[in-house]
Design a protein that fits this description.
It is built from 11 helices and 10 strands. By secondary structure, the protein is an alpha/beta fold. The two termini are about 20 Å apart.
Length: about 325
């Protein structure tokens, strides 16, 4: 079922999660171990992230350096198929611009369509670590809006080859990312939301936000989106902070703020176990406030661990 249909048919707020593929060589059992404890809360869908290839240089005989492609977390499509088969829950693969040509994107979407997957989250994706800015593949997409447009065209039966006969359209529901604290590359919030609205106008049907720890920023973001003509559901993305180190790392990586009252409580903690307890309590309060404001769904970034998400869900759902 499409995400937008889940939301339309729901009588109460939905529960959903996002997971990471396991590191290369690891068993898919680690995925099941992370999902099993959360099934009692009946997740409506499970997002599975996609990780593009990176490159490293290996020294070869004679002193030459060989550029080697690696992908540390492969398996997104296979994991989605396994989740659908095992749990009968909708799985949503992330599709990204980075690392794909338009033809490769089209072929990947055809594979997903044949598997019966009817939701995708369209993202530009990050630049590779050796690049200072995002560089698209040759004949690839530079921005997420181009990816949304390609999916929308396929939903209308329009493929790259325009002379195909007896074409069957795809039927994807497309989600996109929103940033309550602004995408770090956008010059300002209004500009960022204009780009977001363009993705909705191009065919995206719902928004999932970047993680945030201050609900006020989410509410302000939603209000501004509505004022600028965005009417689709805006799903808040939540992360449970579990270590003191994360209070420094997460703002640096994701360009987000830790609210001062939350930070003060974290700084009082002597151990990471104490930080985890504070993080769980903060997320519980966040979740309850969000539900009071009739948010359509709470989406938890589990990062492969279900323990803390389960504790929050038990208090909220």
């Amino acid at each position: 079922m499409k995400v937008i249909d889940h939301i339309k048919q729901a009588k109460t707020a939905l529960f959903s999660i996002e997971i990471l593929p396991p590191l290369k060589g690891k068993s898919i059992q680690s995925i099941f171990d992370g999902i099993d404890p959360l099934m009692e809360f009946k997740p409506s869908f499970v997002d599975v992230t996609y990780h593009r290839e990176e490159y490293l240089y290996k020294k070869r005989e004679g002193g030459y350096l060989e550029k080697v492609s690696i992908r540390k977390r492969p398996g997104t499509v296979g994991i989605c198929a396994a989740i659908i088969n095992k749990y009968h829950v909708d799985a949503i693969p992330h599709i990204i611009c980075g690392g794909f040509s338009k033809e490769e994107t089209e072929n990947a979407l055809i594979d997903l369509h044949f598997l019966g997957i009817d939701n995708v989250l369209a993202l530009r994706g990050d630049s590779i670590k050796s690049e200072h800015e995002f560089i698209p593949e040759p004949n690839g997409h530079e921005y997420a809006i181009n990816l949304v447009k390609q999916v929308s065209q396929m939903n209308k039966g329009r493929y790259i080859e325009d002379d195909l006969a007896d074409v069957a359209p795809t039927n994807f529901c497309v989600g996109v990312a929103g940033y309550p604290e602004k995408h770090f590359e956008a010059p300002n919030m209004i500009s960022d939301i204009k780009y977001l609205k363009a993705k909705i106008d191009a065919g995206a049907e719902y928004i999932v936000t970047q993680m945030f720890f201050d609900n006020k920023k989410y509410f302000e973001f939603v209000n501004t989106c509505r004022e600028m003509g965005i009417t689709v559901p805006i799903i808040p993305g939540l992360k449970i902070l579990t270590t003191k180190k994360q209070a420094t790392i997460l703002p640096k990586i994701f360009k987000i703020d830790i609210p001062q009252p939350f930070l003060e409580e974290i700084e009082k903690c002597k151990t990471d176990a104490a930080v985890k307890a504070v993080g769980i309590e903060w997320c519980i309060n966040q979740s309850k406030e969000l539900l009071k404001h009739k948010t359509p769904c709470l989406h938890f970034y589990t990062m492969g661990s279900s323990e803390t998400t389960r504790k929050v869900a038990a208090e909220v759902f």
